[in-house]
Design goal:
This protein is of the alpha/beta class. The chain contains six helices and 17 strands.
């Protein structure tokens, strides 16, 4: 039995063989495996993602995150001596001003100028934050900042993926539309455009939210006591059309199913902040762990997450701690693929 007041990060540990960490995406996208879990009983059904429709009902609503990943890793050099620098964009603060991670950090003092892509982009460090991140102001030689980034940037794949990504679009969902994420909302990587149309044709709605995924998503929980952990903040937007669809679905007895922990956190943040689902935008640092009472969600589509991560804690809050850890043991035994390019689970 999990002690809710004294939860430890070690409570969320599980053994994962290295070879089960997916290094490349499945081809085609929806050929990945699907572990369907009954939220009430914990019963597991083994299937493939292309059969997701078999577990959906007319009147259900899928809520997806349409954030688009920026090619946020750029390599350049110090303007005065040509020495190497690497920037990783974390969060846009204002036009052409970004919070960044950089290495080697000792080179990035306020006032220092760097150039990228042979001068296509340049940046000046304007501030050093308490956590060591920097604030950088960018200038473009030609065109917009984002067009320059598309030309010279690389996808910020998580450190556990060591193989080079051949096609940048495979780290984007097929419905990505709003640039701003430092990492993909990976639960949506399994969908094809054809499958989404098939799902809509059977009477299942699809609604969009935007939550720009920050690198804090992947930062390990350092505190042994879970309740001492502080979440990073991320920007979200819930449009009017989405609010209407969610409220209509609930009123009609349909299920609201979040595609990914980012969609889940957006919906639960809005419901927590306002006591209802309404059109809004802002920042959230909501931390969902066992004991949390869900206000919106009826189902969750998600990937398999790192041991001791805030994401497996969120899943445990929705499915239940014992059922979650049992499901993960089953997934390891059945040789499912894990993490960003791995397989999927659907909890309802």
């Amino acid at each position: 039995m999990l002690d809710l007041e004294n939860m430890k990060k070690s409570d969320f540990w599980y053994d994962l063989p290295q070879e089960l960490i997916a290094q490349t995406p499945a081809e085609p996208r929806n050929s990945s495996r699907l572990l369907k879990i009954d939220r009430q009983t914990g019963r597991c059904t083994h299937d493939h993602f292309y059969n997701l429709k078999d577990y959906l009902r007319p009147g259900d609503l899928l809520v997806v995150n349409d954030s688009r990943v920026l090619p946020a890793r750029i390599y350049g050099e110090k303007a005065d001596n040509g020495s190497f620098i690497e920037f990783l964009l974390v969060e846009q603060r204002e036009e052409n001003v970004w919070e960044i991670l950089c290495r080697p950090g000792k080179k990035a003092k306020p006032g220092t100028r760097f150039v990228f892509g042979g001068g296509l982009l340049s940046a000046v460090i304007t501030d050093v934050l308490e956590d060591g991140n920097r604030i950088a102001r960018f200038e473009c030689e030609k065109g917009s900042f984002f067009s320059a980034l598309d030309k010279i940037g690389q996808m910020p794949l998580p450190p556990y993926i060591t193989e080079k990504l051949k096609d940048k679009e495979r780290y984007q969902t097929v419905y990505s539309n709003e640039p701003g994420s430092s990492a993909a909302p990976t639960a949506g990587l399994h969908f094809t455009k054809e499958q989404m149309k098939e799902i809509e044709d059977m009477g299942v709605g699809i609604a969009y939210v935007t939550l720009h995924v920050g690198l804090g998503t992947f930062r390990p929980v350092k505190e042994e006591k879970v309740l001492d952990h502080k979440m990073h903040r991320e920007h979200y937007e819930l449009p009017e059309r989405t609010a209407e669809l969610i409220n209509k679905t609930k009123a009609n007895g349909g299920r609201v199913i979040a595609v990914g922990t980012t969609s889940c956190r957006t919906l639960e943040s809005v419901a927590t902040f306002f006591g209802q689902i309404k059109p809004c935008e802002g920042y959230t640092d909501i931390f969902i762990y066992p004991g949390y009472e869900f206000k919106v969600l009826d189902g969750l589509i998600t990937n398999f997450h790192l041991p001791e991560s805030t994401l497996i804690m969120l899943v445990s809050a929705f499915l239940g701690y014992d059922k979650t850890m049992a499901a993960y043991r089953t997934a390891v035994e059945e040789r499912y693929r894990f993490f960003s390019f791995g397989d999927s689970m659907f909890i309802s």
